[in-house]
Amino acid sequence: MWWSDRHRAWIVTAHPEVVDALTSPLLSADRISPLSSRLGEARRDASVATREHLRTWMLFNDAELHRRLRAPVGRSFTPRRVERLRGLCAELVDELLAPVAGADVVDLQQQLFAPLPAMMIAELLGVPRSDTAALQEWSDQLGLFVLGAARPDQAGTAATATAELIAYFEALVERRRHEPGEDLVSALVDAERRGELDPHEVVGAATMLLFAGHETTTNGLGNALVALLRHPDELARWRAGEVADTDAVEELLRFEPPAKLQVRYVLEPHRRGDHDLARGQALFAAIAAANRDPAVFPDPDRLDLGRRPVGHVAFGHGAHFCVGAALARLEMTVTLPYLARRYPQLAPAWDTGPTYQPAVVMKSLRHVPVSLGAPSAA
């Protein structure tokens, strides 16, 4: 554990330290209140509505409020509901790759990894396919603010995107009040009827699910494929059926998790390790480092698709464990084996490496150019 002047935060990297930080009641997940003090006056004024909306997201709340906001979402995000989408996921992969059949180079990040998770979470939410592209764009614009990568002039863009998302889901929620279905928005409306959520929290839960439901999986897919292309022997093992799909995905999540870290803030002064932490200080729980702690994962810098890495923290830990982890895992266990086996000549098509978004929290790719080669006959 050490203090970073650059990030103005404590950094914890060892697996036990990260797990403790993600479960400690002395640390808060509320990133919205501290953010206000760090923004300049213009950005603070432009982002008032954005910040107020984000306060309804369970991601940025603690203790009892977090539990209340999470309960109806977790109850609705059932494994059975997610598993029903396995066939759809396979169909969408085929559909998204069909237009680039025979192309010399394909940017899989833009062609597949970005749209697929957005289409999947839209299906769960009950959003028409025709609206997915607009929702994804608004969500990505909001993400610049949420993930701390926005330039000063982008606060207004995030505010506009927030307003569009709120208006869209307010209309959808109103329709579901009169015409309920089997989707997640209908389940959230049912929670409102039972007094578990207020109207603003219902809309907040819907926008949060849209954002988290595609951001994490998009990153997971891109990072995993890059790791496989950099380790062709492991990719060959997977193609040959020497490792189980579920084991391979878990190892890829450990090796290159979707997020590099999770941010916490000190609620009360306390001592952590050999250091005294002051109220309001930031702490970065480095997930990527914890997943390569040699005390927990032997030879941690080696990708081993048969490892079965029990205890990795790619989806967080404790009360804030990613509520959509089952969906992310399903999409990865459908998409990555499909690419590995359908395209036996799959190879990187970059000169110096893939390009990444400038984000502190997430490990987000901009482009993943590959050569697919001829598809297999099977």
SSE topology:
Blueprint: E1 2-4, E2 9-12, H1 15-23, E3 27-28, H2 32-38, H3 41-46, H4 48-54, H5 63-76, H6 79-83, H7 86-97, E4 106-107, H8 108-113, H9 115-125, H10 132-146, H11 155-178, H12 184-193, H13 199-230, H14 232-239, H15 245-255, E5 262-266, E6 270-272, E7 275-277, E8 282-285, H16 287-290, H17 325-342, E9 347-348, E10 355-356, E11 365-367, E12 369-371
Parallel strand pairs: 2-8
Antiparallel strand pairs: 1-2, 3-5, 4-12, 5-8, 6-7, 9-12, 10-11
Overview of the molecule:
It is a single chain. The protein is an alpha+beta fold. The protein has a single domain (2-366), classed as Cytochrome p450 (Orthogonal Bundle), CATH 1.10.630.10. It is built from 17 helices and twelve strands. It has a five-stranded mixed beta sheet with strand order 1-2-8-5-3, covered by helices on one side. The chain has a three-stranded antiparallel beta sheet with strand order 4-12-9. A two-stranded antiparallel sheet has the order 6-7. A hairpin with an 8-residue loop joins strand 10 and strand 11. Helix 13 crosses helix 15. It is globular and about 55 Å long. 44% of the residues are buried. The mean pLDDT is 91.
